[in-house]
Design brief:
- The complex is a heterodimer of chains A (538) and B (295).
- Chain A has 538 residues and is mostly helical.
- Chain A has one domain: Cytochrome C Oxidase, Chain A (Up-down Bundle), CATH 1.20.210.
- Helices cover 66% and strands 0% of the residues of chain A.
- In chain A, helix 4 runs parallel beside helix 15, helix 7 runs antiparallel to helix 8 and helix 7 packs antiparallel against helix 9.
- Chain A is globular and about 65 Å long.
- The two termini of chain A are 40 Å apart.
- The N terminus of chain A is likely disordered.
- Chain B has two domains: 76 residues, Helix Hairpins; 218 residues, Cytochrome c oxidase, subunit III, four-helix bundle (Four Helix Bundle (Hemerythrin (Met), subunit A), Up-down Bundle), CATH 1.20.120.
- Chain B contains eight helices and no strands.
- Chain B starts with 15 loop residues before the first helix and ends with a helix.
- In chain B, 38% of the residues are buried.
- Classes of the chains: A mainly alpha (538), B mainly alpha (295).
- Chains A and B meet through helix 1, helix 5, helix 6, helix 7 and helix 8 of A and helix 1, helix 3 and helix 7 of B.
């Protein structure tokens, strides 16, 4: 009876529905929903990127050049919100949607309809957010961190708060789905400690999401009531405290930072073994390192607030707790390098991006250590040094990992190989220009240039011009990425094999390329030698 | 009813998620418009908000109807059941964290912000320069903070209505558990009686809470605007009240489903999910009673 019932519901058993609306708006298919997430994320990448271009154009020379200061502030605020909640997070959810069921031998996500809702909330949420740019009073301009009382100015508060609520609902449902999928849908024999590191990283990330997105929702709800209903959470005259917002916000915000990097760790831990043709070095250490980073992320939030006037004991606690994170992160970097050590390496585009990730993310990690030191942070706080730091971890970290993952799994998604030549052209352009863009910002910050300003002292002129040139060219390089994807999806003649990469291991490489609409309708029989980490001695 | 573990269930396509995304958007767009409306240009935002809320109710009705039909048709195997359980547990965990943000605000305001404004610790200069005549205190004697926001107020006495409400919610947890045991034993009449009793207790709680709010506003001058005390008091109890409202509606729906015979001894996850939610609401209330009313 159970058997018959199951097949009743496979009305789309033999392939994707033809009708456009039916296929994309009513989907219960993890691959289609994953594709929706990825396309949405790429769109947001270009929208957020165009905001960044406005910022760099204004900063090309000292003095007011192109835009009004208020609009400049709108651009810095929106660039961050769009990139964080619109580009990076949905890209990881899209990759998780596509790959987690394939990697653990599940037919789909555990809660497919909720999966569809998680996605479809996002276009509406960003419509709401971006529409504020066209409001009479303009959009949010107080920075993505929305610190009151600055963020309470203007009429856009309600729109931004509700947009954040929607994004939060979407993230929480997406995370619940991923946890239920990983814990409940694994094929028999796929033990927890045989799962690919990418799946592990998502399991832990999903826990972080469920734990902190509601806290953000609470924080912005207090902003909303302070603005429109006369509450005094962040109003000192009523006994509240603006610093309270910063505490609640960063209790969300620091785990959020790891939400944007842990899946990247997972991706890199898949790609490097494939192209080094060696199993990952220290599989269990990698998993436990991710878990420790996630745990520590809950007790370091105030390192974002060293300059706000915290009690000394708090500053010391948060400084040491923050520096502890370097230990598990160091383990990860060490293990990636050790995986490559003595491997028979080849340098296809995903591997190039992965190696660039290891080096450049580590630079971002080191500048993070510098910022963790309370006495040093008083100097660096709110300067371009911070901007350089978090762009190294988010652009050459998170974004490079997403690009690497796109190249790595694109043949599995489309059944066609992308152009390796153009992929390499994209890589070299990206890696050179991103450093021209962000490296000089370290010097600007150390010299004292504050962030989030449209004009600056002429002393900072040269490095800003270099940075802007790097920015324009890095932005333009991403058009190559778009071209490579369009080519691989529709025009490439070169068919991908099932395994795609010579050294690739894992269940996702045992299904045909392109992956059929339904995979693993019946749980696969798992052989340890097929798995990326199955033969690791526990 | 043996379920085959090696056959997965993937649900059929549904337009409800897409409808849900649209009605959620309409609701918040209307709400944002309403909040920003100038006096005199009211109407558009409220209408949109109303349409959105009705749409959400319609969506819930439709989506749950299709899920209930699939459940009654026996489509859901034990694996799907486990997914549902995990989904509900993690959803409740997210709710815990949501309340955590407001409890955190309460503790911070009370332990740090208010004493600092009174000159304690490193707040000495703030105190000196901004409000040197302010002596820090929580509750009625603290007023609406150093700026006397919202004017003088009195606090709610915990040993009246709040204590009664605590007893009501605790008893409702007992009655819902008795109903659960009755369901597992197959005594439908007893389930209906005790579940119905739980719904009534939930409704009574809400009536008392509304009464308390009216009294606070009319007699005590304790309002949402009464400084950070009023803010934390009404936001915490208000969000809790919204959750009790939702829980009561869910219990009522489950009561109707029991009446229609949707559940049997083994399969009644809908009942259990709502019971979990009800216990969660109960536990939050105990935290509120302790930290908002008594201490």
């Amino acid at each position: 009876m159970a058997h018959a019932a199951t097949h009743d519901h496979h009305d789309d058993h033999h392939g994707a529905p033809k009708n456009f609306f039916t296929r994309w708006c009513m989907s219960t298919n993890h691959k289609d929903i994953g594709t929706l997430y990825l396309v949405f994320s790429l769109t947001m990448l270009f929208i957020g990127g165009s905001f960044a271009m406005v910022i760099r154009a204004e900063l090309f020379k000292p003095g007011m050049q192109l835009v009004q200061p208020y609009f400049f502030n709108e651009m810095t605020t929106m660039h961050a919100l769009v990139m964080i909640f619109g580009a990076i997070m949905p890209a990881f959810v899209g990759l998780g949607n596509w790959m987690i069921p394939l990697m653990i031998g599940a037919p789909d996500m555990a809660l497919p309809r909720m999966n569809n809702l998680s996605f479809w909330i996002l276009p509406f949420a960003f419509t709401l957010l971006l529409s504020t740019l066209f409001l009479p009073g303009g959009g949010p301009a107080g920075g993505w961190t929305m610190y009151p009382p600055l963020s309470l100015q203007g009429d856009s508060v309600a729109y931004v708060v509700f947009a954040v609520h929607l994004m939060g609902i979407s993230s929480i449902m997406g995370a619940i789905n991923i946890i239920a999928t990983i814990l409940n849908m694994r094929a028999p024999g796929m033990d927890l400690l045989k799962m690919p590191v990418f799946v592990w990283s998502w399991l832990i990330t999903a826990f972080l999401l469920i734990a902190v997105m509601p806290v953000l929702a609470g924080a912005v709800t207090m902003l909303l009531t302070d603005k429109y209903f006369g509450t005094s959470f962040f109003n000192a005259a009523g006994g509240g405290d603006p610093v309270l917002f910063q505490h609640i916000f960063w209790f969300f915000g620091h785990p959020e930072v790891y939400i944007m990097i842990l899946p990247a760790f997972g991706i890199i831990s898949e790609i490097i073994p494939t192209f080094a043709r060696k199993p990952i070095f220290g599989y269990k250490a990698m998993v436990f390192a991710i878990a420790s980073i996630a745990f520590l992320s809950f007790i370091v939030w105030a390192h974002h607030m060293f300059a706000v006037g915290l009690p000394l004991g708090a500053e010391i606690f948060f400084m040491y707790a923050t520096m502890l994170i370097a230990v598990p992160t160091g383990i990860k970097v060490f293990n990636w390098v050790s995986t490559m050590w003595g491997g028979s390496m080849t340098f296809e585009t995903p591997m190039l991006f992965a190696i660039a990730f290891v080096i450049l993310f580590t630079i971002g990690g080191f500048s993070g250590l510098m910022l963790a030191l309370v006495p040093a942070d008083f100097q660096y706080h709110d300067t371009y040094f911070v901007v350089a730091h978090f762009h190294y971890v988010l652009v050459t970290g998170a974004l490079f990992a997403i690009i690497a993952a796109s190249y790595y799994w694109l043949p599995k998604w489309t059944g066609r190989m992308y152009s390796e030549t153009w992929g390499k052209i994209h890589f070299w352009n990206s890696v050179i220009w991103v450093n021209v863009l962000f490296f000089p910002q370290h010097f600007l910050g150390l010299a004292g240039m504050p962030r989030r300003i449209p004009d600056y002292n002429v002393a900072f002129a040269n490095f800003n011009m270099i940075s802007s040139i790097g920015g324009f060219l890095f932005g333009a390089s991403q058009l190559i990425f778009l071209g490579v994807i369009v080519h691989a999806v529709w025009f490439s003649k070169k068919k991908a094999t099932d395994r795609v990469w010579e050294g690739a291991k894992g269940l996702e490489w045992t299904v045909p390329s392109p992956a059929p609409f339904h995979t693993f309708d019946v749980p696969p029989v798992i052989h340890d030698e097929d798995l990326a980490h199955g033969h690791v001695d526990h | 009813m043996g379920q085959q573990q090696d056959i997965y269930f993937v649900p059929s396509k549904s337009y409800w998620p897409f409808v849900a995304a649209i009605v959620m958007f309409v609701t918040v767009f209307g709400a944002a418009h309403w909040l920003n409306a100038e006096p005199g240009e009211a109407g558009f935002g409220e209408s949109l908000l109303g349409i959105g809320v009705l749409g959400i109710l319609f969506m819930f009705f439709g989506w749950f109807r299709s899920v209930i039909r699939e459940s009654l048709a026996g489509s859901y195997n034990s694996q799907v059941d486990r997914s549902f359980r995990m989904g509900m547990m993690w959803f409740i965990f997210s709710e815990v964290m949501f309340f955590g943000a407001f409890f955190g605000a309460l503790f911070y305001a009370r332990m740090y912000a208010v004493p600092w404004l009174g000159g304690e610790g490193h707040g000495v200069l703030t105190h000196q320069f901004l409000w040197s005549d302010y002596s820090a205190a929580w509750g009625a004697s603290g007023g609406g903070g150093p700026g006397h926001v919202g004017g003088h107020f009195e606090t709610v006495v915990p040993w009246g209505l709040p204590l009664l409400n605590t007893l009501i919610l605790l008893s409702s947890s007992v009655t819902v558990t008795i109903a659960h045991h009755a369901l597992k034993a197959g005594h439908r009449g007893k389930v209906l009686a005790f579940l119905g009793f739980t719904v009534l207790l939930g409704a009574t709680f809400l009536y008392c809470q509304a009464h308390e709010y009216i009294e606070a506003y009319r007699e005590l001058n304790l309002t949402l605007q009464s400084g950070v005390y009023g803010s934390t008091f009404f936001m915490l109890t208000g969000f809790h009240g919204m959750h009790v409202t939702l829980g009561t509606i869910m219990l009522a729906v489950i009561w109707l489903r029991v009446l229609r015979g949707h559940f049997n001894k083994e399969h009644h996850f809908g009942f259990e999910a709502v019971a979990w939610y009800w216990h969660f609401v109960d536990v939050v209330w105990l935290g509120l009673f302790m930290f908002v009313y008594i201490l």
